[in-house]
UniProtKB/TrEMBL annotation:
Domain of life: Bacteria
An annotated Gene Ontology molecular function: type I site-specific deoxyribonuclease activity
Reactions that this protein is recorded to catalyse: Endonucleolytic cleavage of DNA to give random double-stranded fragments with terminal 5'-phosphates, ATP is simultaneously hydrolyzed
Name the record gives this protein: type I site-specific deoxyribonuclease
GO biological process terms, semicolon-separated: DNA restriction-modification system
Protein family per UniProt: Belongs to the HsdR family.
UniProt-listed InterPro entries: P-loop_NTPase, Restrct_endonuc_type1_HsdR_N, Type-I_R_enzyme_R_subunit
Enzyme Commission code(s) on record: 3.1.21.3
Amino acid sequence: MPKSQSELVFENDVIRSLEDNGWTYRKDFSFTTEETLLDHWREILYQRNIDRLKDQPLTNDEFEQVKSQIFAIKSPLEAARFLATGQVMISRTLNGTKSDIILECFWPHDVAGGKNCYEVVNQITRKKNRATGRDHRFDVTLLISGIPVIHLELKREGVSLSNAYWQIRDYMANGDFGGFYSLVQVFGILNGDESRYFARPTDYRSFNPAFCFSWADIENKKIDESSQFIKHALRVPMGHKLMSRYIIADKPKGILKVLRSYQIYAVEKILARLNQAQFNGSEQDFLGGYIWHTTGFR
């Protein structure tokens, strides 16, 4: 179904807001396919590992090895572990000698600098599936170092956010978040007046609106308007930290959790205080001890 003009205008507004907050819009990769994004990632892998690859680009066979590791990911927890490690391995035969090469592909702690790059694309076509029998397009995807890690589903003003929420559920039920998109960690839903975010559920049966959160400022005042939500929750570096540092992989429960904004502010205050400390053992004016951080997070 074609987008209404107002929804197209809103999508462009969202992209401009993302550009204003540290993301680079890649028009050349928008309105394309997953394969185009994979080709883009292949080039980033080469450029970031040029020394390890000894100036030899990845062959088709080598990149198939990389893709097979990504496509084998079957759960958000597996994706989170992959991104935390940030490495893939290939086998390369050169001059008759076979060797394993570890390639770096994601730098979770290298926030807003270094090797990571921050890009946004829109209208990536997903191939038709059995449920719908037709192709469709995703709205907006945020890429870090070429990897899709945050997906935004948009609705025009006046359309309930629940429509976007359940649409993502339908996409998952139809298998649209497989392949390269299996690495998405966080979803955002926006309609101009309202904005929410949530960690990627384990599967379509695990969707629970109770874990779809608003963002709030440091004074706990809710931020709904889309451009302000982007400024506070998705800007570089916060968008990076949201999908890496503030994602919790709950292995016993088999689920991903994402912190709420007030929890993030509390953690950042603690980290800032620790960064100011001088642990040199020569002074007694800084007291150490335990931190008891209770937020009601389940």
